[in-house]
Write a structure and sequence with these properties.
The complex is a heterodimer. Chain A is of the alpha/beta class. Chain A has helices at 8-18, 48-60, 81-87, 90-93, 105-122, 134-149, 162-172, 192-198, 220-229, 313-316, 329-365, 390-399, 429-447; strands at 67-68, 126-127, 153-157, 178-182, 203-209, 233-238, 255-259, 275-279, 292-296, 302-306, 370-371, 381-385, 402-403, 406-407, 418-422. Chain B is 34% helix and 10% strand. The longest helix of chain B is centred in the last third of the chain and has 37 residues, at 347-383. In chain B, 59% of the residues are buried. Classes of the chains: A alpha/beta, B alpha/beta.
Chain lengths: 448, 504
């Protein structure tokens, strides 16, 4: 086996030095009846070229060469080449969690830069070293709010990503806290009057997403005022990190749960991504996950360490703030490099391009449908209501190698034939015009 | 001329000191107006953000660095050289399975049709991704001897969470979710934390004199309130629980389940199967046993395999094959525990783990396990005369010594570990498991050649001698790194968790 660095003679020699007569001696503690005496029934050992062929064949059975208008929590953005060059350096790729700070200063300083940039973008005081993803981050943020307030109710906007809500529900079911949902108004934003009624003195937090699942930017200052008046915290979930280049940061929030996939991370059929929690400084001790802090060595040189680990499971065991152990360090590094490449001006320029593309797409595509929530501020997603079903529409688009908007019927049946569309800086005018032309054929056909 | 009074200073054979570049924080080398990006010209009409977003428009994007591309390359390349890595040498962290991360795994995970796959693109255009999921599932089911699996959990602890939710749902379906999870005192900290997150009380059970489960004591403790026992096998001292089936029988007799923490699966692949020795539900760590890179602390992936009785409760969605041979996701599972993560899990890690499995095949996986166990036993044999071995039970893939002999000179496991850095090795796992005071937990994995093992043994033996003759040298180690021991107390007492501009 080509990954194993031993010759048969070396194995024999080592066994002799150990005093074992055969390798099976070393497995003698496994009771005889449980030893596997046959080959595992898995594919035979393959050469490297065969492995590549196997996956190329699989890749060819996925969509290749399609224009896509799907977003909904996973966004296609251009990924600068240097991200991959840098994260494939073995010193980053094959390093462990930086518990031994003296020989992991590279990872530690990069995470410290990550935490700083996340604070700058979200308007929060502190940020952790990352969470699994945006969905579990939202669930962890809710549990954090329960710990902080000593209350047990979470009020969640229905405009939060449906799968994030499902994950939160799974986490909540055994945490003795309850979640109830608040619907949206005609503008596609959380209904403020309903929100006010839903809040009680048992409410630990209000959780909204902004831009929300429909791409609409929520009125964060107004929501914060309502939440805080009732003594509840405000958690803002952000699934599209690029929006922070042009959308005002949720500075009034107490906790921000960000999905940083847009910062240089491939869609990769849904993961790995990079969640991160940011919060007001006063909530530091209730923050789950790893944190990197600055300190000095005994000669006064600056260095970085994992810190405040008394919150974590390996110290606190069942009393920990969370059972989370790993973060998404390598993905957080991709995001760090991405934010460094675009920097202060680039993140804004990029966000404005996204805004412009989506504006053009919404205007062009809605010539053959109804643009829902048209008057609310949006980032780069929008909801289109059409006379024909999403299935009919998308079947025709697929014939033209276009993956159209995502059907919302499963989660929002009240919206009828509604589809969620996304345009990013990678979406071209030509693609938008082509999609619009297919929609026009459709509406002509329907009219006829 | 040296006198006999001069204390012993060892000679590292693996490393020679070399210079590393200094590098400030990116913010400190930034200057306004520098750019590392160029956007293509906009092909649609320009927009006015203030008009479109109103008061939701952002004025200032805060302080992000402004640098050119060459500076960014150098910045992160310099940082990278401050890290230790498997690619540089042995990484004997017990319980972490720091094995070689094959590069073909990285290559195939970046193929366009795989990396660019959107989780919501039509299933008809996702058959390749679904085939990868299905084949990896089939392989892992066969390797573990279980009946079914979910790949959705994002890491080991997330897998534990999912597995205990399955156990809970099963108990609940029988009318009573039960109250307690039994956890040995040798367990990983994630086990009790997981039980708590799932709403269970933790009942700690003491290990016996061999570091294993005290079967007689277990029999006393298990009752109708017991939901499950969370067991690591081989245990965290690297010992196979040879009464494992008896343990399973005791639990099953009271209607409780056996959960296995699969952290140490690298000792078992191809040699024995948890499903065959009585385990009901377990998680795997693809970033340990199946070679996906640790990446400085993630991403991981923690699939959960289980017996048929738990299948109805698996997280949604589950992959299914239709009568037309097409694969699809099934969301219609009324008894499911729900969803533990958006989309389908850390798919990119599935690709890598499958590539690893295909590169090995049945013979390669078995040889891998044998070499991992051979390496651990070789280290044990070569060091047991200089380090205390608290449990003499036969080792599998890792060996746990203690600092008992060195502590009399005031030297603890953490000090020995720091000195190991000067010899060019990453430290072993220190102070774990908790049942061994001053533990040195060493897991070489199969990836080490005999030469590398001999260098490690030589380093550990020289350090043992230094501990006897020159304790000061060890207490102040490491001596060869960019920074010496860092002040963790101040870091925790006055946390500085982000850079801030210095006032003028």
């Amino acid at each position: 086996m080509r990954y194993l660095p031993k010759s048969p003679a070396e194995r024999t020699e080592m066994l002799r030095e150990i005093g074992a007569s055969s390798i099976d001696d070393l497995f003698s503690t496994i009771p005889e009846e449980y030893r596997l005496k046959r080959d595992l029934n898995i594919p035979r050992q393959m050469g490297e070229s065969e492995i590549i062929d196997h996956f190329k064949n699989a890749a060819a059975h996925n969509a290749v060469g399609y224009a896509s208008f799907i977003g909904a929590g996973v966004y296609r953005h251009y990924r600068p080449v240097i991200i991959d060059s840098l994260v494939q350096r073995g010193e980053f790729l094959t390093s462990y969690t930086p518990y031994q700070a003296e020989i992991t200063q590279g990872t530690l300083q990069a995470i410290f830069e990550f935490q700083t940039m996340i604070c700058e973008l979200t308007g929060m005081d502190i940020a952790n070293a990352s969470m699994y993803d945006g969905s579990t981050g939202a669930a962890e943020a809710a549990m954090m709010a329960v710990r902080i307030t000593g209350r047990d109710g979470i009020v969640v906007a229905r405009t939060v990503h449906p799968e994030y809500r499902e994950v939160m529900e799974t986490y909540a079911q055994h945490q003795e806290h309850s979640a109830n949902e608040v619907g949206y108004g005609a503008d596609g934003r959380i209904d403020l009057a309903t929100l006010e009624q839903a809040l009680t003195d048992k409410s630990a937090a209000v959780l909204v997403q902004s831009p929300n699942f429909f791409g609409v930017v929520e009125d964060i200052p107004a929501i914060a005022e309502i939440a805080h008046k009732k003594g509840a915290l405000l958690i803002v979930s952000i699934a599209e990190a690029i929006s922070l280049g042009i959308v005002r940061p949720p500075a009034e929030a107490d906790i921000v749960s960000l999905e940083a996939q847009s910062f240089g991370v491939a869609p990769s059929y849904g993961g790995p991504f990079c969640g991160v929690l940011a919060a007001k400084e006063k909530y530091l001790r209730q923050m789950p996950g790893r944190l990197v802090g600055e300190t000095k060595d005994k000669d006064g040189r600056r260095g970085f360490v994992l810190t405040l680990s008394t919150r974590e499971q390996h110290i606190r065991r069942e009393k920990a703030t969370s059972n989370i152990c790993t973060n998404q360090a390598l993905v957080a590094l991709m995001a760090t490099i991405y934010m460094t490449v675009y920097g202060k001006q680039g993140i804004k320029d990029l966000a404005v391009q996204n805004l412009a593309k989506a504006q053009y797409a919404a205007k062009t595509l809605s010539e053959n449908g109804k643009l829902l929530f048209a008057n609310a501020p949006r980032f780069h997603e929008f909801v289109l209501q059409t006379s024909e079903t999403a299935e009919q529409l998308n079947a025709r688009l697929l014939e033209n190698k276009i993956i159209g908007g995502l059907s919302l019927k499963k989660w929002y049946p009240e919206l009828g034939n509604a589809t969620l569309w996304c345009a990013t800086e990678l979406t071209t005018k030509e693609q938008i015009d082509q999609a619009a032309a297919v929609l026009t054929e459709a509406s002509v056909a329907t009219t006829a | 001329m040296a006198t006999t009074e001069q204390p012993f200073v060892g000679t590292p054979r693996k490393v020679t000191a070399h210079l590393t570049q200094n590098e400030k924080l990116s913010f400190e080398i930034s200057s306004p107006g520098k750019k590392a990006y160029k956007l293509p010209p906009l092909d649609v009409p320009e927009v006015d953000p203030a008009q479109l977003l109103g008061k939701a428009a952002r004025e200032d994007t805060g302080t992000l660095p402004e640098l050119s591309e060459i500076e960014i390359i150098r910045h992160f390349t310099r940082l990278s050289t401050w890290n230790y890595a498997i690619d540089l040498g042995m990484y004997p962290l017990g319980s972490c399975t720091m094995k070689y991360n094959p590069r073909v795994n990285e290559f195939v995970s970046r193929l366009e049709g795989i990396a660019e796959a959107h989780p919501y693109q039509p299933e008809s255009l996702s058959q390749g991704s679904l085939q990868i999921v299905k084949l990896l599932q089939d392989c892992l089911i066969e390797i573990t001897g279980m009946d079914t699996i979910t790949l959705q959990p994002a890491a080991g602890a997330h897998g534990e969470f999912t597995g205990i939710l399955l156990a809970r749902a099963w108990h609940k379906s029988k009318g009573n979710a039960r109250r307690n999870i039994l956890i040995p005192d040798s367990a990983h900290g994630t086990n009790p934390a997981t039980a708590a997150v799932c709403g269970y009380q933790v009942v700690n059970i003491k290990s016996n004199s061999q570091g294993g489960i005290d079967v007689a004591a277990l029999e006393q403790i298990v009752n109708e309130d017991t939901a499950a026992l969370m067991l690591t096998n081989p245990s965290t001292i690297g010992v196979f629980e040879n009464q494992i089936h008896k343990i399973a029988d005791i639990l099953h007799a009271k209607g409780a389940l056996l959960y296995m923490d699969g952290a140490n699966m690298n000792a078992l692949c191809g040699k024995t199967r948890p499903g065959d020795f009585g385990v009901d539900v377990m998680h795997l760590n693809l970033h340990k046993t199946f070679s996906t890179p640790h990446g400085g602390g993630g991403p991981g992936s923690g699939p959960v395999a289980c017996k048929k009785i738990l299948e109805p409760f698996l997280p949604i969605p589950v992959v299914e094959e239709g009568s037309d041979g097409q694969l699809r996701w099934n969301y219609d599972r009324p008894e499911s525990v729900g969803r533990v993560r958006a989309f389908y899990g850390n798919f990119g890690m599935f690709v890598r783990a499958l590539a690893y499995t295909l590169a090995n095949g049945p013979d390669g996986l078995r040889q891998t396990t044998e070499d991992a166990v051979l390496n651990a036993n070789y280290i044990r044999k070569k060091l047991e005369d200089v380090y205390d071995l608290p449990y003499t039970t036969p080792s599998m893939h890792e060996v746990v010594f203690s600092d008992r002999r060195q502590v009399k000179n005031g030297i603890k496991t953490g000090d020995l570990a720091k000195r190991l850095i000067d010899y060019g090795f990453h430290p072993y796992t220190t102070s774990f498991p908790l049942i061994v005071p001053g533990a040195l937990m060493i897991e070489p994995t199969e990836s080490e050649s005999r030469e590398e093992l001999d260098l490690f043994v030589d380093a550990m033996r020289q350090i043992a001698r230094e501990a006897d003759e020159n304790p000061e040298l060890i207490l102040s180690a490491p001596h060869s790194t960019r920074v010496s021991r860092l002040d963790e107390t101040t870091a925790a007492r006055k946390p500085v968790l982000r850079w801030k501009p210095q006032p003028e």
